């Protein structure tokens, strides 16, 4: 199965004249994104990050630059689930193929050394609920060992920052499936509301939506209209920003105070980012 087209901005693909006459983008959210990115790394449980859908493409791009030379890679699962609509039975094989393309199958989950950590912006958690259900049914069908696999799955929800109180609504407390995983496997990182809304609702994306029922339509070449070219410039600048010493250190500062700093893997990663 082919994956949807998206330029490789780390390698990178030849962009030709696509960015000619495109103004330098204003990365007005960069400080907030860098801090949030550091916390996502710290709360990943030393897992391999997989960004679900398109909402956090900017974090994916920033990490593409920042993690060069660290031996760590990030990946994307190009799947979007319609809110309020169950995955159609006819779409299940396609969804499984997409997961298998990036090495996620019941067999590989049972045998991998590090966890896989799914990351996405979260409002009510419906995407994570559908993704967990997809994996859970697949694992049961293939009779892989759930007690082993449950230790290999993690979910990080990037949520809107708001005042906290004992009555604050937290999506994971209302999702029954989260109780089947260790308590540390489902965590949140908060992000400034304006930045969260930009990534989740308003930002122009480089690819078509990833709805499974329209998948074949989205295997065509990427969009090339003016707004997409501006979005491409934004993504290219994020990769470049991630390579800079200043931004790598901003990401490292986002880890400050995180409990996982007591673990060798995170201390090593922070040293690499600060190098």
Describe the structure in your own words.
39% of the residues lie in helices and 10% in strands. It has one domain. Helix 1 crosses helix 9, helix 2 runs parallel beside helix 8 and helix 9 runs antiparallel to helix 10. The protein is of the alpha/beta class. The protein is built from 10 helices and 5 strands. The longest helix has 18 residues. The protein has a 5-stranded parallel sheet with strand order 2-1-3-4-5.
In short:
It is built from ten helices and five strands; from the N terminus they run H-E-H-E-H-H-E-H-H-E-E-H-H-H-H. With 275 residues, the protein is an alpha/beta fold. The chain starts with 29 loop residues before the first helix and ends with a helix.
Name some characteristics of this structure.
275 residues, alpha/beta, 10 helices, 39% helix, 10% strand
Largest sheet: 5 strands, parallel
Query: How many E-type strands?
Result: 5
Strand content: 5-15%
Written as H for each helix and E for each strand, in order along the chain, the element string is HEHEHHEHHEEHHHH
Number of helices: 10
Mean pLDDT: 90
* Largest beta sheet: strand ordering: 2-1-3-4-5
Which helices and strands occur, and which strands form pairs?
Elements (H helix, E strand, L loop, with lengths): L29 H13 L5 E5 L4 H10 L8 E3 L14 H10 L4 H6 L4 E6 L4 H17 L3 H4 L3 E8 L25 E6 L1 H10 L23 H18 L1 H9 L10 H11 L1
Parallel strand pairs: 1-2, 1-3, 3-4, 4-5
């Amino acid at each position: 199965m082919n994956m949807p087209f998206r330029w490789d901005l780390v390698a990178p693909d030849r962009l030709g004249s696509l960015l000619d006459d495109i103004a330098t983008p204003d990365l007005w959210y960069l400080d907030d994104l860098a801090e949030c990115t550091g916390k996502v790394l710290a709360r990943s449980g030393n897992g391999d990050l997989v960004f679900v859908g398109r909402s956090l493409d900017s974090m994916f791009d920033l990490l593409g630059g920042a993690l060069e030379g660290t031996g760590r890679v990030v990946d994307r699962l190009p799947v979007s689930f319609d809110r309020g609509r169950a995955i159609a039975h006819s779409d299940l094989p396609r969804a499984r193929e997409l997961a298998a393309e990036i090495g996620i199958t019941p067999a590989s989950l049972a045998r991998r050394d590090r966890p896989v950590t799914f990351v996405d912006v979260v409002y009510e958690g419906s995407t994570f609920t559908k993704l967990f259900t997809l994996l859970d049914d697949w694992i049961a069908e293939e009779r892989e060992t759930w007690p082993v696999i449950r230790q290999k799955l993690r979910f990080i929800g990037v949520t809107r920052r708001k005042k906290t109180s004992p009555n604050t609504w937290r999506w994971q407390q209302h999702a029954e499936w989260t109780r089947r995983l260790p308590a540390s496997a489902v965590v949140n990182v908060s992000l400034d509301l304006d930045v969260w809304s930009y990534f989740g609702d308003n930002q122009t994306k480089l690819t078509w939506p990833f709805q499974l029922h329209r998948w074949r339509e989205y295997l065509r070449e990427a969009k090339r209209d003016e707004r997409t070219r501006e979005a491409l410039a934004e993504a290219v600048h994020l990769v470049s920003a991630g390579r800079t010493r200043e931004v790598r250190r901003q990401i490292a500062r986002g880890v400050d105070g995180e409990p996982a700093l007591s673990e060798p893997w995170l201390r090593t990663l922070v040293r690499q980012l600060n190098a």
